[in-house]
Amino acid sequence: xxxxxxxxxxxxxxxxxxxxxxxxxxxxxxxxxxxxxxxxxxxxxxxxxxxxxxxxxxxxxxxxxxxxxxxxxxxxxxxxxxxxxxxxxxxxxxxxxxxxxxxxxxxxxxxxxxxxxxxxxxxxxxxxxxxxxxxxxxxxxxxxxxxxxxxxxxxxxxxxxxxxxxxxxxxxxxxxxxxxxxxxxxxxxxxxxxxxxxxxxxxxxxxxxxxxxxxxxxxxxxxxxxxxxxxxxxxxxxxxxxxxxxxxxxxxxxxxxxxxxxxxxxxxxxxxxxxxxxxxxxxxxxxxxxxxxxxxxxxxxxxxxxxxxxxxxxxxxxxxxxxxxxxxxxxxxxxxxxxxxxxxxxxxxxxxxxxxxxxxxxxxxxxxxxx
DNA sequence: TACGGAAGTT
DNA sequence: AACTTCCGTA
Length: 371
What we know:
Oligomer: single chain
CATH topology of the domain at 57-158: Arc Repressor Mutant, subunit A
CATH architecture of the domain at 57-158: Orthogonal Bundle
Strand order of the largest sheet: 1-2-4-3
CATH superfamily of the domain at 57-158: Winged helix-like DNA-binding domain superfamily/Winged helix DNA-binding domain
Shape: globular
Structural class: mainly alpha
Radius of gyration: 20 Å
Strand content: under 5%
Distance between the termini: 47 Å
C-alpha cells in the first residue's frame, strides 16, 4: 500500500510496478531485490526493446544471464566457459531461483527456464552446445541487432544490409559463427549520449549518421578459433587475454587507467547524477585504431527495426571511469555482499505466490563445480 | 538431460 | 512478444 509518490520522470513507469523505496541503502547489483519490473539495474532503457513492444519491456532472460555472467559472485553458479560466448550453468537450480526472483516467479525452476532458453534457439540468440551439460552459447550479433536499433539505423542509412565484418579480414561469418564479440557488445552497450554535441559516441557519428563501430576485433576472423573464454566482463578475471596492438584491452575495465571501456551495461542505476556523465571514455576516441566501419548482421532477414537510434540512446554508467559510483562519492565495490533472495517487492497478487517459497538461502554456497 | 508442442499469462 | 507452465517424447 505504500505507493511510491511518483516515479522518476526519466524512468518509465512500468505501469504495474509498485516501486517501494524500502531500502535506503543502494543496491549495487542485481538491484531488483524487489521484484520490480525494471527500475534501476543492469541495462539502460534503450537496451530493452522499444517502447512499442509492451510485452518485452521487462528484463529478458538473456539480459539476466548476461548480467549474472558479468558478476564474479555468480561464477560458481554460471560462468563463461569453453568457446566464445559459451557459458555453463553450473548450478541450474540456483540460476532458476535467481531468475524466478527477478521475475517474481517463485515457482521457476530449471525446467521452465530452460524452456525459455530453448525458445532462443529459433531466435538465434542462443544455441545449445551439444554434448556439454547445461552449456549454451550466445550469438552475440543477434543479441545486439535485436536490441540495438542503432545498428539497424545505420544499415538503413547506408542502404546496405547489416553485415558483420569480422575483423580486418572481412568475410561474413556463418550463421552459427559468433560474429560479434563480447567486446563489441561492450562498445555498443557503452554508447554514450548521442545527442550530446560535446560528447562523441564511440560508435556513431551523428553528423554522418554513419556507424562508427571502430572497435577492433583482433581475435575475430583470424584468431577466433584459438580464442576462448572471452567475455571477461569484470574487472578481474585472473586470466590473460590476447594482447592488442593498440594498448586496447577490451577486457580490462577497471584497472586500466587508460580507457576502461565498460563492458555490457555494468551496473546501471537510474541515477540522476549518472545523467550528468560529461565524458565517456569512448573506445574509439582514446586509442582508437579505428578500423573500417563495422556493421553487424546475422545473415537472416533481420527485420526492419525502427530507426530510432538517436532517440533512445542514453548514457551508461561506467565503473571505474567516473561513473555513477564516482559521482555518487560512494564506493562501487560493494556488490559483493549482494544477496538475492528477497521477493518482498513482488506484488502478492501478481503471481498468487504463496508465503515465501524462496528460502533465504545464501548465494552461491556450493563449492565450485569440479567439472 | 534435452527438445519442442500447446495453452496460458502479462 | 516473451515468457511460464505442463507435458509427451527421445
